[in-house]
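Hi support team,

I'm opening this ticket because the web form for multi-chain structure prediction keeps timing out on my end. I have pasted the exact lines I submitted so you can reproduce it. The total is 609 residues across two entries, so I didn't expect it to be a heavy job. Is there a limit I'm missing, or should I split the entries? Thanks in advance, R.K.
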Amino acid sequence: MQRIYVHPLPVRLWHWINAVGFVAMMLTGTQIRYVGLIDLMSFRTAVTVHNWIGFVLIGNYFIWLLFYLFTDKIRVYHPELSPTKHFKASFRQLQYYGYGIFKGSPNPHQVSAYDKFNPMQSMMYQVVMFLLVPLLAVTGVLLWDVQGFYGAVDFFGGVRVVDTVHVLIYIFFAFFIFFHVYMGSLGHTPTAHYKAMFVTGYEEIEEEPGHGGATKR
Amino acid sequence: MNTLTIATLHQNLVKAAFAALLMLLPARLMAADAAPADKLSDGDKQCLGCHGFDGLKKELPGGKVLSLHVQGDGFAKSVHGAIGCASCHADVDLKTHSHKPKTIVSGREYSVAMTKVCGGCHAEALKQNETSVHATLLASGNPSAPICTDCHGSHTVTPKTAYDTCVGCHLAAMDAHQKWLPNAGLHLEVVSCAACHAPAAQRMVDLRLYDGAAKKWVAEKEGKPEFEKMARAVDTDGNGLDALELRKLIGQINRDEAAQPKNLRGRIELRTGGEAHQLSGKSKAIKDCAICHRQGAEPFQNVAISIFSADGKPLRYKAQKEVLGSVLSVDSLREFYAVGGTRNVLLYILLVLAVLAGLAVPIGHQVLKIIVKGELERAARQDKAAKGRDQP
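Hello R.K., no limit was hit. The queue was backed up. Here is the completed structure from your submission:
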């Protein structure tokens, strides 16, 4: 096994603060929206906690953003500009997850410090980190003070549109949390990716050339 | 004894003489500038002949002075303009009034006594008020306890928003709410004070037409009532506006593309104004957010769209409660959304599907793993068996 340092400390810190915060945001958000369906806490407590954690997560997002903007690690988020190449690689990755992984085939994606995402992850995280999370934060801040941000709320089509966008992204993350946690268990051992992201920062990969036995999550 | 200073009387006489000169102008020219007070009955004009002078005063026992001035235009435009002076002041005999004026001990005492007159027409409101915190204060002898005229005015009785009326006395209301209520400013803007402070009352959603460019509620043009006619024409089945009909109505209201669009702004109001009088103390006021912010909450069971009439009264037309959560209302109700209370069923279904899909990924993948591994093992066994048969 070869050990490659792919998750620097700022990224790991951001990730776990984000993970705990996101779970709390999903729970309080569900409580706010579906009073009666779940009764974990009062509506007012849920709103207060949701607001505070929301601002913590916005601050936390900037840890991630500044780290990547001011280091060369931003390369992990560089998109593959050739659609043909990207989709061919994505299809190979899909074949691996749907079949190859069960018969012990090597992972078609070779992890490195500057290329830690497989093609499907790469596309997914570009959308999540540069579109959905910022949109979730912006709509959340607007809903936090609808009156104060009336001009912006009106610009985006009114409070109903802003709330619907916020809720649609929440619904996406309600799916994504399950998906993300499960994919994290598909390393060379079920806990390999968790250990790498939580503790060490090192991913363990097969030594055999061309065989990237580990992918991030 | 009524007093009127010489200087004021002179000033008012000059005004009256000028007004008389104007009357000589052709009626057509006058019509454009006719003052609202001109529409009053002759009897009311006779009253205003004296009470219209802003220096008319009465000396009260103890040396206090009570103004007897009534703003003619204000009264004419008020909701009581149509019923005239005598409806409330039936005890006044015009033959003897000028030389035998009423005996008034204090303005406050007179106003308290006049609440019975208010009850002559507004019996329900007065009855609701009996158990209110305001009536309790009055009964306890509190000299500042609010009575009818403190909230509604005496002669310029016009519909006002509850908030504007209440903060006239409750100046610290905003600060007090900001200490515990999230989005306090927004709540005080869109929730009538009585909606929480009259907890036993029944609430409703009043979707009022608002002109964002002019920053004011939309009112009918005088002499051209169109709102109800338009709503009735759109509501073909007569069972209240559904989401599609509401969209159509808003489209018709905004049919002039050059004009700034008008939108519906939702307010939580009481179903009847009378119920607003049963105000309780703040200890009994609603503080549980879930009263409104939950599916099927009581305030969202009754919905109306409204506009102000030319004289400032709200004109309401029933809408179906389902408009609040309809996907078709995203644009027509763009300025009204109460989290939890007006949620969309479609989004709820999407959430359930998303969670199911999230659970289906690990379950499906593990099932696939079992199937593929089973197939691979079966293939391996068959291969081994085939090789065994091939070997001599």
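A quick check on our side: Residues 1-10, 16-33 of chain B have pLDDT under 50 and may be disordered. Let us know if the file doesn't open in your viewer.
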